[in-house]
Design brief:
By secondary structure, the chain is α/β, with parallel strands linked by helices. The protein has two domains: 11-234, Zn peptidases (Aminopeptidase, 3-Layer(aba) Sandwich), CATH 3.40.630.10; 242-324, OB fold (Dihydrolipoamide Acetyltransferase, E2P) (Beta Barrel). The chain is built from seven helices and 17 strands. Strands 1-2-4-3-5-8-6-7-9 form a nine-stranded mixed β-sheet, with helices on both faces. The chain has a four-stranded antiparallel β-sheet with strand order 10-17-15-12. Strands 14-13-11-16 form a four-stranded antiparallel β-sheet, with no helix packed on it. The structure holds zinc ion (ZN). Zinc ion binds next to loops.
Length: 340
């Protein structure tokens, strides 16, 4: 990794230079490498491609403090902050306002972000066999912990189920994203999406750490546990192949009436948009059956703002039951449930 070789059983940090900023100081990407004593997969875990999405940073910090990596097979490569220029400015975006996750595969002589994408992809990501990239919702738009996977990425789909999140969503690929680039190179990749930008929430962090360890067990990198598996959310996983935004029918005060993880069906009132001066209120009705995976925390909305994000399912009530009341897994080897 970088200019350093790691011996079996060795761990350390490599600082990869990625450019310099207006203060004339170099910017580096810290890459943690844990090399197992025995060979196996090489898993990348990355966070903060968007500089204000901090939950993944904390997940990696906690992951690296876990005991038990002396029994690691293969290698764990962890990058807590991919986009340091954006992280330093508390921003999703690069200093030139571009989105790093739309600049892949990048170019050696491109903009700062394009160079960063190129260096990260070629020096860090491509030497790995599997990837877990971590993101959060926008400010004020938290996500229920969920794993996103590309349609057709079969190995990624297996990893997504092994992660055991409340919801797995098959989502289409965005041009220039890391996931699209890895898909085109046939490298399995999943996205963990949880919580919101700028904030840590304990449940999103806990499920992230547990999910990564669960994927590592699935890949044979860590031994299977005999005791109750630390399943990500202690319930079954709902699989959805379509998500839908429910939008504010007009501007005003937004008051949600359903919570995260709740099932909804067509015609059901999800909340209201109210006239701030008390003259009237307009219900927001669901157009689909599914499970709420994101809710706006904004108290005021403009017409058309996305206020509820729904993972569309065939049997929304069963899905809610799986998410909110799921039995704890007893066996680590238990087959994950796939509803459809
Ligand atoms: Zn993101």
């Amino acid at each position: 990794m970088g200019d350093r070789d790691f011996l079996p059983g060795e761990r350390g940090v490599v600082d990869i230079p990625v450019g310099s900023l207006i203060d004339y100081q170099p910017v580096q990407m810290a890459v943690h490498v844990l090399r197992g004593k025995k060979p196996g997969p090489r898993l990348l875990v990355s966070a903060a491609l968007h500089g204000d999405e901090i939950i993944g940073v904390e997940i990696i910090r906690r992951l690296l403090r876990m005991p038990g990596f002396d029994r690691l097979k293969g290698d764990l490569v962890a990058v807590p902050v991919v986009n340091m220029p954006a992280f330093l400015s508390h921003s999703r975006y690069l200093p030139d306002r571009r989105d790093l996750n739309r600049l892949f595969p990048g170019a050696a002589n491109g903009s700062l972000g394009s160079r960063l994408a190129h260096i990260f992809l070629n020096q860090v990501v491509m030497p790995c066999t599997h990837a877990i990239d971590m993101h959060s919702g926008a400010v004020g738009k938290p996500n229920l912990p969920q794993v996103r996977v590309s349609p057709g990425d079969n190995e990624g789909y297996e990893m997504a189920l092994a992660f055991r999140p409340p919801v797995v969503v098959e989502t289409s690929l965005r041009a220039g994203s890391l996931r699209e680039t890895l898909y085109s190179r046939a490298k399995p990749c999943i996205l963990y999406e949880a919580g919101e930008a700028h904030r840590l929430d304990p449940e999103s962090v806990r499920q992230g750490v547990d999910g990564i360890l669960s994927v590592m067990r699935f890949l044979g990198m860590l031994p299977k546990t005999r005791k109750a598996a630390p399943a990500g959310h202690r319930g079954e996983t709902v699989v959805s192949r379509l998500t839908s935004w429910s939008r504010a029918p007009r501007g005003g005060i937004f008051a949600p009436e359903v919570g995260m993880g709740k099932s909804v069906k067509p015609g059901m009132v999800l909340g209201v948009v109210a006239d701030p001066f008390g003259r009237q209120e307009t219900p927001i009705k669901s157009k689909v059956a599914g499970v709420i995976i994101g809710i706006s925390r904004e108290a005021t909305v403009n017409e058309g703002d996305g206020v509820f994000h729904i993972a569309v399912t065939r049997d929304a009530i069963a899905a809610e039951r799986q998410i909110l009341h799921g039995e704890e897994h007893v066996e680590d080897t238990a087959e994950p449930f796939v509803g459809w």
